[in-house]
Amino acid sequence: MLDFLAHRLLPVWRLAERQRILVPLVVILGLTAAGLEGLGIGLIIPLLAIVAEAGDVGGSGIVIWLRSFGADMAPPLRIVMIALVMFALISLRNIITFANNALTAYISGQAGHTIRSELARRLLSVDYPFVRDQEPGRLLNILSNESWRTADCVNATLAFLVNASAAVILYGFLLTLSWRLTAIITVALVVMLLVHGVLAKRLRSPSRVVSAANGGLAVRALDIVHAAQLIRLFNQQSREQSRFDAASDAVRTGVLRLQLRSALLAPLSEILFAGVFLIVVVSAWGWGFSFPLVATFMVLLYRLQPYVRNLQGFWGQLWGWSGALDAVAWLLEAGAKSPAPTGVLRPVRPATSIAFDRVTFAYAADARSAEVLRRASFVIPAGKTTGFIGRSGAGKSTIVQLLTRLVEPSEGDILVGHVPLRQIDPAAWRSRIAVASQELELVNASVFDNIAYAIPDASQADVERAARLAEAHDFILMLSEGYRTLVGTRGFRLSAGQRQRVALARAILCEPEILILDEATNAVDGLSESAILETIGRRSGRGTTLLISHHHRTLSVCDSVVVLNNGRVAAQADWSSVRHLRMEDLYELGASGLEAQASRAVLDRS
Fold it and tell me: If pLDDT is split at 50, 70 and 90, which confidence band does 483 have?
């Protein structure tokens, strides 16, 4: 248990640094409320002594003070005074309890916000491959579900402190009334806590099962929403329904198992406490305690019961939330294990040529079979348009990810001028780059916000100018609310071509020194493509452009092309020397073939 607290609960509390300052106040208020409650109950002694006309009720310490409260008053006036004081103590205790509950709600709410914010920060700051390789449903479940359970755990910790404070105070009152009866209760409580601890620990396994099942359910829910068109086109509604039902039933089964085990704890506590009550009553009678003393002791014991049960419930909840704590701790630790690329140098201005020097990249660092780029060497001239061609899987998109530092080379260097890219500050470097890709999604916002995503303070005129250059302005005006039209999650309310043109406008608005177009025109019509290519052509000499495409016409604006084949650079050549070749022929050419074709083109022109 101590290991679990140290490695799961304490790291969560360390995140809530500002909220921890208020925790001592929670304890003080809890102790105060419990003390007032104990005093209020203790006044039952003189009250019952007057009603029963009892003499010496016994007891020591605070009991002597309580039984003498108002002793110099007449019995009728004393009863009224005791009743008023008891009412005042009870009222004040409840006011303090309300204030403590409000403070606890504030602390747990702020702590929950801090935890969720930190989880989002870790996801945003961790390196891209970590996010790419994780199941989206798992990450979504941690952010949306497990973070809430972790916040509940923070709330339970505060409740534990309040209940522990009250239990300590009431236990002290019991000890003052009778150490012998309190000794019986102490033994019983130790036995109860041991039994309860054993049962609570059994909640850890089903809690982890529920956490994993919730992640699986989130995956199925994402598929139903994001793949809605695919599901209907291939008539897979029943299949997806079955998969969702199976995932949902796994959650139901796991939750049922967790709840059944949790449900054992409350009845067991009730039974054990009933036994303690009976033992105390019999023992008090056998030892000859007075009625006022026994009655007060029993009321205090009755009030102690919910606090002890709450403490036991905390342990059960803690183990029940262990799956959520493990999931949150995993994501928090991921930020330290998978840091994003770093660098301190500023990129040179103006942009110079970029050279890949024997660059190798593999998704698994120790697996040669996972290499998607092998000792690639080529140059991207500054101010020119360079095309990248090759069959799917040849390594074109990997080059984009390497150039934008979403991933880092396994071997080799990328040189910006003479400076290794790994030494340049990633944020400063990316501020010089804009990417338009068919895989780069739109955010769930308006068309305007998507175009101005990288420049939130862009003016309407600037956004419209970028949209015109991307051939997007006309269709945007035809939307229901024009530039204020919401595009929906991942831009599903727009067609594929419309999404591409909005993404291209977003990149153009940045006026980048390096513009990367990764299949950015494959879903637009011929007229739109011509206008977009004209926009790209106007960048010649003013900015560097990387163009990835399978279309011969799109590549016509390139100054040179890099041919990729199975992760290797087959050759780099001027486009003018190979533009007469078909794409299929280009895919198969190596360096020697390109040289021959270039020589033939020169002879043909002469």
Answer: very high
Contact 350, 344 (CB under 8 A): no
Q: Identify the band that residue 96 occupies on the pLDDT scale cut at 50, 70 and 90.
A: very high
Residue 323 and residue 381 in one domain: no
- On the question of pLDDT at 602 being above 60, the answer is no
506 phi, psi to nearest 5 deg? -60, -40
Q: Rounded to 5 degrees, what are φ and ψ at 419?
A: -105, 125
Structure tokens that stand for 357 in this block: 């020097």
Identify the top-confidence range among 320-329, 345-354, 469-478: 469-478
Cβ atoms within 10 Å of 181's Cβ, excluding its own:
23
Give the model confidence (pLDDT) of 13-55 as tens digits. Answer: 666 667 778 888 888 888 888 888 887 777 776 666 666 555 5
3-state secondary structure 268-330: HHHHHHHHHHHHHHHHHHHHCCCHHHHHHHHHHHHHHHHHHHHHHHHHHHHHHCHHHHHHHHH
Last residue of a domain, one of 303, 319, 336: 336
Residue 606, pLDDT above cutoff 60: no
319 with 404, same domain: the answer is: no
332 shares a domain with 383 = no
Residues with Cβ within 8 Å of residue 553, at least 6 apart in sequence: 529, 533
Please tell me what DSSP assigns to residue 347. P
pLDDT reported for residue 592: 47
Q: How far apart are CA 27 and CA 34, in angstroms?
A: 10
CATH number of the structural domain spanning residue 582: 3.40.50.300
Nearest-angstrom CA–CA distance, 515 and 403: 11
* Domain extent for 102: 2-336
Separation of alpha carbons 321 and 331, rounded Å: 16
Distance (Å) of CA 370 to CA 364, 404, 514: 6, 21, 29
d(CA 296, CA 290): 10
Rg of the chain in Å (alpha carbons): 36
**Domain C-terminal end among 311, 336, 361:** 336
Number of domains in the chain: 2
Tell me, what CATH number does 316's domain have? 1.20.1560.10
Give 362's strand partners: 371
Whole-number average pLDDT of the chain: 79
Strand-pairing partners, residue 571, are: 563
Residue 83 pLDDT > 50, yes or no?
yes
Whole-number Å distance between alpha carbons of 388 and 373 = 13
530 in a structural domain: no
